[in-house]
Design brief:
Blueprint lengths: L2 E3 L13 E3 L4 E5 L8 E5 L10 H7 L4 E6 L2 E3 L2 E3 L3 E3 L2 E2 L1 H21 L7 E6 L1 H12 L6 E5 L17 E7 L9 H10 L3 E7 L7 H22 L4
Parallel strand pairs: 4-5, 4-10, 10-11, 11-12, 12-13
Antiparallel strand pairs: 1-2, 2-3, 3-5, 6-7, 8-9
Length: 235
């Protein structure tokens, strides 16, 4: 199913895993420090590639395995996840097509890479976060935990769906002039569809930083503690 390529026509640094090119999406696998840990699936922002979220993900989960996926729509020498019309208006056909293919890709990968989707967290930034939220709304039940950085609603017509059991952290930037005013609407939308949503604002603009990593670590720690407490038998 897979062939190998570096994505640039040349060699890649030893510390960077090779790019795996699958029928739908290309991605890199960063192994966990210890077996049995969490998996983070990374969806980058616009005009870059799959490696850009890796440093942030390492701050969030130093021991976690990372699956860094590359968007398929070219933009300014990099890639994005679906076509845009303006910075805040998007091609609806492209959103739905890319979200459907990404959902199929995740379903296939959960088998090929032995992913436990109940322990897999999807981390997206900007356009990548918008693809994650669209995939959740259009294909519910597949993505069960997500951290969305600098995101906004992008679907002109939102289907009525059931996101019960889905847990989402939405982090907006207090000085984000691109999506800041729209981020609360996304949190409200996902909550109305039944998801458990926590919304936070960090003192940043549209860029991400250490404040996002700290918020994500705390949220994941609370999720892990809750899961452990639920699994523990009562005395």
């Amino acid at each position: 199913m897979q062939k190998h390529d570096d994505g640039k026509g040349g060699g890649i640094p030893l510390e960077t895993p090779e790019l795996l090119v699958e029928e739908a999406f290309a991605y890199r696998l960063y192994p966990a420090e210890y077996p049995g840990g969490r998996r983070l699936v990374l969806l980058h922002g616009s005009g870059v590639d799959e490696t850009t979220l890796v440093p942030l993900a390492r701050q969030i989960g130093p021991d976690d395995a990372l699956i860094a996926v590359r968007g398929r729509i070219p933009q300014e020498g990099g890639m994005r996840w679906f076509a845009r019309i303006t910075p805040t208006r998007f091609d609806q056909k492209s959103i739905r097509s890319e979200a459907a293919d990404f959902a199929d890709f995740i379903a296939e990968m959960s088998f090929a890479e032995r992913l436990d989707l109940s322990r897999t967290v999807f981390l997206g930034y900007s356009n990548g976060a918008n693809l994650i939220s669209s995939a959740m709304l259009l294909h519910p039940g597949l993505i069960r935990q997500a951290i969305l950085l600098r995101a906004m609603p992008v679907l002109d017509e939102t289907p009525v769906t059931n996101l019960a059991g889905t847990r989402i952290l939405v982090i907006g930037g207090a000085a984000d002039e691109t999506y800041g005013q729209y981020t609360p609407a996304l949190a409200d939308l996902l909550e109305r569809q039944g998801a458990g949503v926590e919304a936070q604002t960090v003192p940043l603009g549209h860029e991400f930083g250490a404040e996002d990593a700290a918020a994500a670590r705390r949220w994941l720690g609370e999720r892990d503690a809750h899961r452990a407490g639920t699994a523990s038998p009562k005395p």
